[in-house]
Amino acid sequence: MIFCRNVLIYFDQDTKTNIFGRLSRAIEADGFMVLVAAETVVGLTEAFKPVADRRGLYRPGDARVPLAKPAATLATAPRLTAMAGG
Fold it and tell me: Which helix or strand (DSSP H or E) is residue 36 part of?
């Protein structure tokens, strides 16, 4: 799950496109990304698709940006399984 709320509104279109590409490399295929109403992927990238009837909720699209590193390298990286707020 990626929460990217009230962040993208401060960047130009090219920077947003770059950010979405980077986020698409970080998210699992079955993951979700949450944006606020003022932010959208529509018209910027095919790396994420809106979830029908769920405003601000997006799934990875078919055009996810390819990984820059080989999958074997990523497989050895630690995974975040839980996060506690403080």
Answer: none
Q: What is the pLDDT of residues 33-78, one digit of tens each?
A: 999 988 999 899 999 999 999 999 999 987 665 544 444 444 554 5
The dihedral region occupied by 53, where left means phi > 0, alpha psi between -120 and 50, and beta the remainder, is left
Which residue segment(s) compose the domain that 43 sits in?
2-74
33 φ/ψ angles, rounded to the nearest 5 degrees: -125, 135
Task: For the full predicted model, state whether its pTM sits above 0.85.
Answer: no
> Domain containing 17 — which CATH number?
3.40.50.150
In a domain, 79, yes or no: no
Identify the H or E element spanning 20: helix 13-26
Residue 41 included in any domain: yes
